[in-house]
Structures are given as structure tokens and as C-alpha cells.
Specification:
mainly alpha; 25 helices; about 65% helix; E_motif
Length: about 475
């Protein structure tokens, strides 16, 4: 009986061991396991090192494994490598890791890393960077940071991979902190760095920092990169500076559908529906084909402006002109439009006969609309269907509770709160933030922690009185 050390993948998936600084812990455990297994099972495991590994060159087997990778049979290649106890070279490990990243098969990537540790293969800087990319893209930022900290020479690719990993995981402040650290160490950013950092600024609505990053981009002479150009347009829109977004758009040498869609969506979010429709038709006239996201931006803009006929026109255009089947999000935009027009029953019938009526976004939109219009019966129906699909969504429980409270149905309010309590559902407090003179101010509901809280609440009270006097 031959023991295969597949169990080491389990250890490698634990962040505490999944980097080479702790390989000796893994091997020590492997040897103890082997000794125990020999004494209790009669299995044949020889020597003090990991068993069943062939240290000879792979030869034709290596070519076979690379061929399996190229043909899309990554799992089979990894299984052969691990189960046959083969010791690969750096080139094969690099190919396997790259394929794992490309296919987002991070489990196989961890197995390859575990195999490298068990056979005692020490990766060079290139392979360390590959491993860092693997863990960053998988969202395992703890292990990615351990890999990063263990690199004697952190190249630009390593910095970019870690910054991108933090951005994609929604940890934008930390991503900006890494960027500052990278600059302090004299590492010059490239277009990939700027694309990630601009996304972080957009997510945090940090307009001034975004402008400084844009200035650095210009100083570096980086032009004509469509990813960076699109990110700039999106960032300025999310920071409520559509004028800057337009300048960034007009200054882009290369524009693709993402660039156009970013500006269309930005104008739509700020209620500039005329500009949305003008840009949409200009994009088509320049030979670009709108995608699902473009149409969603147009439909949402029409919904906010109450343009019922125009919205249906573009909704039908998707299939008739471009052969696109509307997705649940497009249908939700139409539900929102009908609800804003007071056509709640029509919106309900629309949802009931959709092919994907089991999509929570539709019922969530209908619930929100019913809440706004005080339609108790429809709110209850929509809530029941929504909670069948997303039983742990705290926000929608609060919406339903508010519907009952508006009708004075306090027993129903108590029932909703009891369900939330029984299921351990807690609503995270909503947070808003604004950047003033390069400083970000964050606010929670009922928050009085801000040093100027008294002034803020007095201002809110004064604005509320003015609104009431104006008839709102």
C-alpha cells in the first residue's frame, strides 16, 4: 500500500502554513504522520523524507502535463503530479500555477503549492510572484501578504498583485495604504497600478486623492490605456464630478464600450437623462455595440426620469436589434419604472410571468416599491417570495417592518423583529461619507461621534425646517 500525501493540501489551505517560511512545520508533520502510519497500518513508507517522490527529471511526463494544461485538463495534470510523486521543475510549476489563475481553480493552485513544499522545491522570485498572484486573486489576502512579506526583492508585479487583491476584496483603504508604501520605497507605478488605485478612489469617493493619482498618471506619460481611461471616467462619476468625467472621456485616445458605458452610467446616476440617451446613440453611430451593462444604465436612467415609453423602447431594442435576452437586472429596472409610475399591480404581473421569477432582485425591487407606495398586500407577497430566496437579508426585513409600522401594525413589526432575532439576523448600520478638503468624514445613523456633531445636527434641523416651509 502506498500513501499519497494529498492530505497536505488541507494543511496548505490553512493560511498559517501556506507559504514557504513554514515548510519545515509541514515536513515535520509529514514525517511524524509517516512514522505513525508505518507502525499502525503496515503500509510501506520508507526513509525520513516525504514518501513516493521521484526526483528524476520528468522528461516526456513533463511535456504530457503541459499538454494537459493547454488542452484544458488542469485537474488531471495536477492529479498526476501529486499522485505519482513527481518532482517538477520551475517551468512546469509556473505553467500549472498560471493555468490555475487563468481558470480560477484556486484549489488546484494550493495543491501545487503544497506539492512544492513537500518535495522541498524552493521557488525563485518568478515563482514566488506567481504564488502571490494566485493567493491575491483567490481572496486569501493573509497568505498573499505572507508571501509578499517573505520576498527579499518586491518587484512591481508583486506590488500590483497585492494592491489589486485588496481592491477586488473591497479593502480599498488598505489598497491605498499599500500604494503609498510602494511609492515611499521608490517603486514606479505602471498602468496596472493606476487602474487598481483609481478603482479604490472611486469606491471611497475620494475625489482629491483621485485627482492626485490622475496627475501622477499624466506625469508618468501613460496614455492610450483603455482600462485606465475607463477607470478614470468611472471614478469621477462616482465622486459626483461629471464635468471631470467628461474631460477624462474626451481626453481618452482609445475608448471601448466600457469607457462609454462608464460615462453613460455616471450621467444616469446624476439624473442627466438627455446626455445618457445622446451618448448611447453617439456610441452606436461610432460603430460600438452596447452590452448588457450599457442597456442597464440606460434603463435605470429612464426609470429615474420617469420616461416610461423610452424605457420600453430600449428594453425591446435589446432583443430586436442586438439579440440580447434581458437579464433579471434589466427586468428589475422595468419593475422600478412601473412602480415609480404607480403601476404596482402591472409590475407584479410582469414579475410573475418572467422566466427567471426566482431571482431575488426582482422581488426585492417590488418590495421596495410597495414600501414607498404603502401597498401592504403586495409588500407582504414580495417579502415572502424574497425571503424564500434570501432568508438572511437584514435590509429587506427592515423594509417590511417599516411597511407594517407605517400602518400601525405593531404586532407584525414585533413578529418581524422576532424572526430576525431567532435567526441571528442583524442589520449592519448604514454608513455615508464625504470628502472635504482632503479629509474623509464618515457618518452612521444617529452617530454623534464626529467632533462637530452639534453643528451638523443643528444644520440638519435648519434644512428640515426650510424643506417643510417649502412644502416638502
Amino acid at each position: 500500500m502506498v500513501v499519497r500525501f494529498e492530505f497536505l493540501w488541507f494543511l496548505s489551505s490553512s493560511s498559517a502554513f501556506a507559504f514557504h517560511g513554514h515548510r519545515h512545520h509541514l515536513l515535520h508533520f509529514a514525517r511524524r504522520f509517516a512514522a505513525h502510519f508505518n507502525s499502525t497500518s503496515g503500509a510501506t513508507i520508507h526513509g525520513h523524507g516525504p514518501p513516493h517522490f521521484k526526483s528524476s527529471t520528468l522528461g516526456g511526463v513533463g511535456k504530457k502535463l503541459k499538454g494537459l494544461c493547454v488542452s484544458g485538463r488542469l485537474g488531471e495534470a495536477v492529479n498526476i503530479l501529486c499522485s505519482e510523486g513527481l518532482v517538477a521543475d520551475g517551468s512546469l510549476y509556473a505553467s500549472l500555477l498560471q493555468e490555475c489563475v487563468d481558470l480560477k481553480d484556486f484549489r488546484s493552485g494550493r495543491r501545487v503549492h503544497a506539492h512544492m513544499m513537500v518535495v522541498g522545491f524552493t521557488p525563485d522570485e518568478y515563482l514566488r510572484t506567481k504564488l502571490l498572484i494566485l493567493y491575491s486573486k483567490s481572496g486569501d489576502l493573509f497568505t498573499a501578504h505572507q508571501m509578499f512579506d517573505g520576498m527579499p526583492d518586491r518587484n512591481l508585479v508583486a506590488w500590483n498583485s497585492l494592491i489589486s487583491g485588496y481592491v477586488e476584496s473591497g479593502r480599498h483603504e488598505e489598497a491605498l495604504g499599500l500604494y503609498a508604501g510602494m511609492r515611499s520605497q521608490g517603486v514606479a507605478p505602471d498602468q496596472f497600478t493606476f487602474a487598481s488605485v483609481i478603482k479604490a478612489c472611486a469606491a471611497l469617493a475620494k475625489l482629491e486623492q483621485g485627482r492626485r493619482v490622475h496627475g501622477g498618471l499624466i506625469k508618468r506619460g501613460i496614455k492610450g490605456n483603455v482600462v485606465v481611461g475607463s477607470a478614470l471616467v468611472d471614478m469621477y462619476c462616482k465622486c459626483s464630478s461629471t464635468s471631470d468625467a467628461r474631460r477624462a472621456f474626451d481626453g481618452s485616445r482609445v475608448r471601448n464600450v466600457v469607457t462609454w458605458t462608464a460615462l453613460i452610467a455616471g450621467y444616469g446616476q446624476h439624473g442627466h437623462v438627455a446626455e445618457v440617451l445622446q451618448l448611447f446613440h453617439q456610441m452606436i453611430s461610432e460603430g460600438l455595440r452596447p452590452n448588457h451593462v450599457t442597456f442597464l444604465a440606460v434603463l435605470c436612467a429612464c426609470s429615474r426620469a420617469g420616461l416610461v415609453a423610452e424605457a420600453w423602447k430600449y428594453f425591446n431594442l435589446m432583443a430586436a436589434e442586438y439579440g440580447m435576452k434581458p437579464k433579471a437586472e434589466h427586468c428589475a429596472a422595468m419593475v422600478d419604472l412601473m412602480a415609480r409610475s404607480g403601476k404596482l399591480d402591472e409590475a407584479h404581473q410582469f414579475v410573475k410571468f418572467l422566466p427567471f421569477k426566482h431571482h431575488s432582485v426582482l422581488w426585492g425591487t417590488l418590495l421596495g416599491a410597495s414600501s414607498v407606495h404603502g401597498h401592504l398586500q403586495l409588500a407582504t407577497v414580495a417579502a415572502n417570495r424574497f425571503f424564500e430566496l434570501e432568508p438572511d437579508n437584514a435590509g429587506k426585513y427592515v423594509v417590511l417592518s417599516n411597511v407594517y409600522a407605517a400602518r400601525g401594525l405593531w404586532r407584525k413589526v414585533a413578529e418581524v423583529r422576532e424572526v430576525m432575532k431567532e435567526n441571528g439576523i442583524k442589520k449592519e448600520p448604514a454608513c455615508s461619507w464625504i470628502e472635504v478638503q482632503r479629509e474623509v468624514h464618515a457618518f452612521l445613523v444617529g452617530d454623534r461621534s464626529h467632533p462637530r456633531a452639534d453643528e451638523i445636527y443643528k444644520t440638519i434641523k435648519r434644512i428640515t425646517i426650510l424643506l417643510k416651509d417649502a412644502g416638502y
